[in-house]
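Q&A log
Question type: sequence-to-structure
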Amino acid sequence: MRLAPALMAFGNREASSFVRLLQAKETPVAITWGAFNRKALIRIPLFAPGDACDAWAPTIEFRLPDGSAHAHLLLAGMAQALALGRGLRDLDALLERTAAHGEAIDVTRMPGLPRDREGVLAALAEARASLEAGGVFPPSVLDAWLPAAVR
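Response status: OK
Response body:
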């Protein structure tokens, strides 16, 4: 959830990506998670035990990317985000603070997603150390994505 704005660099690469997000029609409107809310950034569908879907492992939907996504970099970034999340000391507080309860999301109390390319690039520059941790993203890869003015 903390790296979501930076991951937009790999998952929302076109100007039309922001049109989709700004319309907010079943698209993420804030950095939230939930089981049923289709406006949550991360959706964790829940199934009742014994349901026909019980045969499949639980899934997580990261609802941010669109057809312009660079899948390899996005998945590498998501893996880095999961590794970062495992080490957080305040994980329970973060999850409670960002939970989307019910159908309505109070976007005034939730961290927001960048609404333009400049905001995404600033988030990518800020998250650079987290993405480069462990050698997953070589500095040259992020240099290719970041303009010199933001590095």
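Response note: The two ends are 22 Å apart (CA to CA).
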